[in-house]
Write a structure and sequence with these properties.
mainly alpha
C-alpha cells in the first residue's frame, strides 16, 4: 500500500472514531438522563468523550502534516 493510500485509510479511521465518539456521547447523555445518574458519573462520560475527540484532533493534525509532506 502506498503512502497516499495509507493516509486515506487513516483519515477514514479517524472519521469513524469521531462518529463513534459522538454516538457514545449522545447515548451516555441519554442514559444518564433516563437512569438518573449522578452528575459525577455523567461528567466522567463527558470527559471520556472529550478525550476521544482530543485524540481525533491530534490524528487530524498528523494527517494534515503527512499530506503536506507528501505533496513536496
Amino acid at each position: 500500500m502506498g503512502n497516499r493510500e495509507a493516509i486515506n485509510a487513516q483519515g477514514r479511521r479517524t472519521a469513524v472514531l469521531i462518529a463513534l465518539a459522538g454516538l457514545f456521547w449522545i447515548a451516555a447523555t441519554w442514559a444518564g438522563g433516563q437512569f438518573g445518574w449522578a452528575q459525577r458519573t455523567r461528567a466522567l462520560f463527558d470527559l471520556a468523550a472529550l478525550a476521544v475527540f482530543g485524540l481525533a484532533l491530534w490524528q487530524i493534525f498528523t494527517l494534515w502534516r503527512a499530506r503536506r509532506n507528501d505533496k513536496g
